[in-house]
């Protein structure tokens, strides 16, 4: 895991970055590895990949962060990327794999009320995706909105959103 993280830091080759991110993502499916990746500084290395210009690298980074977000301590570090993830959703092509990966990460990050406030400005975008997206996109958006609906503090924001 440490070598993969170092490899991500050392290379600018998108194909190598994608493969390293896929391997880290698969490794993060095991809870013991989630702590190891965090302790090695992997979350910030993966998070930096969200500003990469290659959509596939961003997508793979989002998938890795999604698997890593199943851990509360990891969520505390991943939450700093929520605004950027929301921007990726808004700028990604409609129904793209990149958009879906970002929505999956926000689904995990919105399970608790802790970070939902960071997603408020994207509610109009979510509602737009709900009306314009394919069924796969709609399902992912609905998962985020259902998480919001369980939080009374989000009610006002959901009801006053401009569509």
Automatic annotation (TrEMBL):
Belongs to the eutherian X-chromosome-specific Armcx family. It comes from Turnix velox (Little buttonquail). PANTHER family: ARMADILLO REPEAT CONTAINING 10, ARMADILLO REPEAT CONTAINING PROTEIN. The lineage of its organism: Eukaryota, Metazoa, Chordata, Craniata, Vertebrata. The gene is Armc10. SUPFAM superfamilies: ARM repeat. Residues 1-163 form the Armadillo repeat-containing domain. ARM repeats lie at residues 41-78. It is found in: Mitochondrion outer membrane. This is ARM10 protein. InterPro entries: ARM-like, ARM-rpt_dom, ARM-type_fold, Armadillo, Armcx_regulator. GO terms for cellular component: mitochondrial outer membrane.
């Amino acid at each position: 895991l440490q070598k993969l993280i170092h490899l991500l830091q050392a290379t600018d080759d998108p194909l190598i970055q994608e493969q390293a991110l896929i391997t880290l993502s698969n490794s993060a499916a095991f809870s013991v590895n989630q702590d190891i990746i965090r302790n090695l500084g992997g979350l910030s290395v993966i998070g930096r990949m969200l500003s990469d210009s290659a959509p596939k690298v961003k997508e793979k980074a989002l998938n890795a962060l999604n698997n890593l977000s199943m851990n509360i301590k990891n969520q505390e570090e991943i939450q700093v990327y929520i605004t950027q993830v929301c921007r990726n959703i808004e700028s990604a092509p409609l129904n793209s794999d990149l958009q879906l990966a970002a929505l999956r990460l926000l689904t995990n990050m919105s399970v608790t009320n802790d970070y939902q406030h960071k997603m408020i400005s994207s509610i109009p975008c979510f509602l737009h995706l709900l009306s314009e997206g394919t069924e796969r996109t709609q399902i992912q958006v609905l998962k985020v909105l259902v998480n919001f609906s369980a939080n009374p503090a989000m009610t006002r924001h959901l009801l006053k959103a401009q569509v």
